[in-house]
Amino acid sequence: MWAIVGTWRMALEGITKAAGELSAGRSAGDALEIAVKETEDYPYFKSVGYGGLPNENMEVELDAGYMDGDDLTVGAVAGIKDFANPISIARRLSLEKCNNFLVGTGAEAYASKSGFERKTMLTQRAKIHYYNRLKQEQKESKAANLKPYIGHDTVGMACLDQAQKICVATSTSGLFMKRPGRVGDSPLVGSGFYADSTIGAATATGLGEDIMKGLISYEIVRCMEEGMSVQAACEMAVNKLDLRLKKINGTAGDISVVALDKKGNFGVASNISGFSFVYASEKTAPTVYVTELKE
Ligand code: SD4
């Protein structure tokens, strides 16, 4: 049995490619790298890779994370500029003995030395979004009232291969107009992603500042370990964090998750309506689903 699940409709093309590879016996790590790269390379996804929206200095700073559920190795990069595929750099870092999580210029130096492809990641379209946003801020007398980011679409994918190995990967440009150097949940193990081949894997998308407060990906895997179904674990983790944040602040940021158990069943939960995700398995052709919020 193999299976793969990914956040948002934008995972479809990548998952479709990966599905062919997985059915031919390719590993979860390879399949994920192929799938996430596909999303990173597509210029019209505004929150991942090439075409991702910039920070307040009009620079595209990218974050990515990767975890191998067999040996629990992790690789991650944050705030990396001008490299085409942060997921490949994160995956390569997971093979290092230490120095597994690199940021900014350190990550760029490593990527350069390791021969990863350089690319200017700021597109003309992203520049237009940036200048429109500046205009909007000038119009609104209190720029602070503008939401940092509307909508969210980090790509996170979890995958089980035919050898029963489970891996997970994330890639994002983070929040539009973030402060230079700001890092969200996506490259943080336990928050944006977690995988353990003996249990399952989970990955998150939404407001990183809130997601990381609940270590939500680890929490989902932990709940599965305690015997919950993958679906119950996702719902429990999202509801618990959402309620807690609302109790403290009166409001909670967007939190959406997808997960896989070791049999390849998926789980999903979100505190917003209209969260879309993609699932494919040995038995299911790549399919896009959209969640509705349960009251
Ligand atoms: C972050 N979780 O950097 C990411 C944002 C996200 O689409 O999901 N963006 O906080």
Automatic annotation (TrEMBL):
Query: Any coiled-coil ranges, and where?
Result: none
Q: Which Pfam families match?
A: Asparaginase_2 (PF01112)
Q: Which InterPro entries match?
A: Ntn_hydrolases_N (IPR029055), Peptidase_T2 (IPR000246)
Q: What is this protein called?
A: N(4)-(Beta-N-acetylglucosaminyl)-L-asparaginase
Q: Which organism is it from?
A: Amygdalobacter indicium
